Amino acid sequence: MIKKSFTKENFVKWVLTAFALSSLLFLFLIFAFILFEGLPLFLKIGLSKIIAGFKWAPTKGSFGIFPMIVSSFLVTFGALIIGAPMGLSCAIYLSEYSGKRMKMFLKPALELLAGIPSVVYGFLGVIYIVPLVRNYLGGSGFSLLSTSIILGVMILPTIISISFDALTSVPRTYREGSFAMGATKWQTIYRVVIPSAKSGILASFILGMGRAIGETMAVIMIAGNALRIPVSILDPLRTLTGNIALELAYATGDHRLGLFSTGVVLLVIIMILNYIANFGIKRKVIK
Amino acid sequence: MDGYALRTEKLNLYYGTMHALLSVNFKVFENSITSLIGPSGCGKSTLLRCFNRMNDLIDDVRMDGTIFVKEQDMEMLDIIELRKRVGMVFQRPNPFPFSVYENLIYGLKVHDIGSRKYKQETVERCLRAVGLWEDLKDKLSSPALNLSEETKQRLCIARLLTVEPEIILLDEPCSALDPIATLRVEELMVELKKNYTILIVTHNMQQAARVSDYTGFMLLGELVEFGETSQIFTSPKDKRTEDYITGRFG
Question: Model ipTM?
Answer without folding.
Answer: 0.89
